[in-house]
Design brief:
Elements (H helix, E strand, L loop, with lengths): L1 E3 L4 E2 H9 L5 H7 L10 H10 L7
Antiparallel strand pairs: 1-2
The structure holds FE2/S2 (inorganic) cluster.
Length: 58
């Protein structure tokens, strides 16, 4: 499933970045080799971070 349409990031890519240590959306983008653009996907990424035990503020 594509989570970030601007960067064409899939859920698998995002969860892989989280597993690799990303704990904030900006780190997820960086881990995927891109950056935030419209920001529409940020909420979903934060939800995945929380599900993975990370969290936006940590
Ligand atoms: S959908 Fe991810 S930055 Fe636009």
């Amino acid at each position: 499933m594509v989570i970030c349409h601007c960067n064409r990031l899939t859920e698998a890519q995002v969860t892989a970045a989280i597993a690799a240590g990303a704990s904030r959306p900006a780190e997820v983008y960086a881990g995927c080799g891109c950056g935030a653009q419209c920001g529409c996907c940020c909420r979903t990424i934060v939800d995945l971070l929380r599900a993975g035990g990370g969290g936006c503020g940590k």
